[in-house]
UniProtKB/TrEMBL annotation:
Underlying gene: tsaA
Family: Belongs to the tRNA methyltransferase O family.
Gene source species: Vibrio algicola
Protein name: tRNA (N6-threonylcarbamoyladenosine(37)-N6)-methyltransferase TrmO
Domain of life assignment: Bacteria
Stored PANTHER family: TRNA (ADENINE(37)-N6)-METHYLTRANSFERASE (PTHR12818:SF0)
Listed Gene3D superfamilies: YaeB-like
Keywords: Methyltransferase, S-adenosyl-L-methionine, Transferase
Pfam family, one: TrmO_N
Gene Ontology terms describing biological process: methylation
Signal peptide residues on this chain, from the entry's feature table: none
Domain TsaA-like: 5-146
A molecular-function term among this protein's GO annotations: tRNA (L-threonylcarbamoyladenosine(37)-C2) methyltransferase activity
NCBIfam families to which the protein is assigned, alphabetical: tRNA_TsaA (TIGR00104)
Presence of the UniProt keyword S-adenosyl-L-methionine in the record: yes
Length: 243
């Protein structure tokens, strides 16, 4: 029997496009977000008591991918983008019903006139992602210290990020530039390029839309680093322009 799901909220996040969104929540801790509750869910009564919880589960729609459909196997970036595994053994965004879930920090509840907002910590959601449900995170039940993480057992490697002189000067004109710079470092440090390019410097300049900025960057190799260094590559932010 088919069901219809209506979003109960929309996310407001720094990520204006899919490219460079962290592949898991909390990888960019300075990138705060918020949820605008909609319709009947837009009520202080609907979230009464939620502030007792430090974290919540967000169920959401991969709305930008729904039209593309899905396949039984996928190529996870953590496996280099070449090895195929079953879609249900992954967190791929192309799924049978296009539903995702994230555990995120709840910073609080705010009320602006008739609008109720949930203030969040770091999320892995594109701006305007539809939220279809919100549930409290319960540590004794949801935290499983002995769980095994399979091919994603280890945290992803983070590259060093440096800024060109012009990019740094542009950032410093913004009153909140320290936080914005931290977000850029946390996002780009994960090397958002396609998985097959991981740990491979190239001469191509990439661009990502964060906040209201167009951030351009390249992946380079530090030729002065020791040959046996774990990773000689780094991210260079070449320019930052306001939209």
């Amino acid at each position: 029997m088919p069901y219809t799901i209506e979003p109960i909220g929309l996310v407001q996040s720094p990520y204006k496009e899919k490219f460079a969104v962290p592949r898991q929540p909390r990888l960019a801790p300075n990138a705060r977000a918020r949820i605008q509750l909609l319709g009947a869910a837009n009520s202080p009564e609907a979230v009464r008591g939620i502030e007792q919880f430090s974290h919540v589960w967000l169920l959401f729609l991969f709305d930008q991918n729904l039209a593309a459909g899905w396949k039984p196997t996928v190529r996870p970036p953590r496996l280099g983008g070449n090895e195929r595994i079953g879609v249900f053994a992954s967190r791929a965004t192309f799924r049978p019903n296009g539903i995702g879930m994230s555990a995120v920090e709840l910073k609080g509840v705010t009320q602006e006139g008739n609008q109720t907002w949930l203030e969040l910590g770091s999320v892995d959601l594109v701006n305007n992602t539809p939220i279809i449900d919100i549930k409290p995170y319960i540590p004794y039940s949801d935290s499983l210290p002995n769980a095994q993480g399979g091919f994603a057992e280890k945290e992803p490697e983070v590259l060093r990020v440096i800024f060109s002189e012009n990019a740094q000067l542009t950032l410093q004109r913004h009153p909140d530039y320290r936080n914005i710079q931290a977000v850029i470092e946390q996002v780009l440090g994960q090397d958002p390029r396609p998985a097959y390019k991981k740990n491979k410097p190239d001469n191509k300049e990439y661009a990502v839309h964060l906040f209201d900025w167009n951030v351009k960057f390249q992946v380079e190799s530090d030729l002065s680093a020791p040959i046996d260094a774990i990773n000689r590559n780094f991210i260079r932010v070449t320019s930052i322009q306001a939209f």
